[in-house]
Design a protein that fits this description.
single chain, 230 residues, alpha+beta, outer membrane lipoprotein receptor (LolB), chain A, 41% strand
Amino acid sequence: MPARSREILRGRLTLLGCVTLLSLCTAMPAAPRSTQLTVAEVLQAHCSAREATVTLRARFVQTKVFEALQEEDTSSGVLYYRKPDAVRWQYSTPDTSWTVLRGAKGWSVFPRIRQVQKFDLQQSRTEAALSIVGFGTCGKDLHEAFGITLAAGDDGLQVLAMTPQEPEMAARFDRIDLALDPKDHLPRQVVLHESSGNTVRFEFRDLEPGARIEDKLFEYEVPQGYEVVE
């Protein structure tokens, strides 16, 4: 796949994965005895952790698996979150770029090709995006948006296997797996199982709840000489 196409696709993956847009079913194994909690208990703990998270910074690795082509596209960078509705995905490898969601607005910036892609989001889609990545609103709306079961994940993680109930999201995703660390109930892994058979996996590391985050990270500004695509 050409480098330019991969770079634009990477931004679109974030838009799709976070914008179908980011809480986050086939049968899943039961949780081990050491984590015998109900879905309601795990979800409540996660929702409480979300409510307490005002800002957060974390490193991430994003892997897109193209099933039909037997190819993978991997990128990494830093995620910035600020309550209630601002997220920035700052990519550092393989190329520098960033995607920002703020309220009902969003944009992706690609310095290498000098292009900015703008998009508008309904508030419901913004909330869905933040839910997918494990932040944003929670509670009743989450129960209505997903059918949720509990499974045991690697390294003792608690996995909420979430089947979309809303038709538009269900057309894009078969299931979304949200893996939580039982120590703080925040996500360490999100796996999007697309209806196409492809998957997108996000691994979160070095989470810093309460991190000091500059306002300018969520401000929209078109660099001089960039093409704007809407």
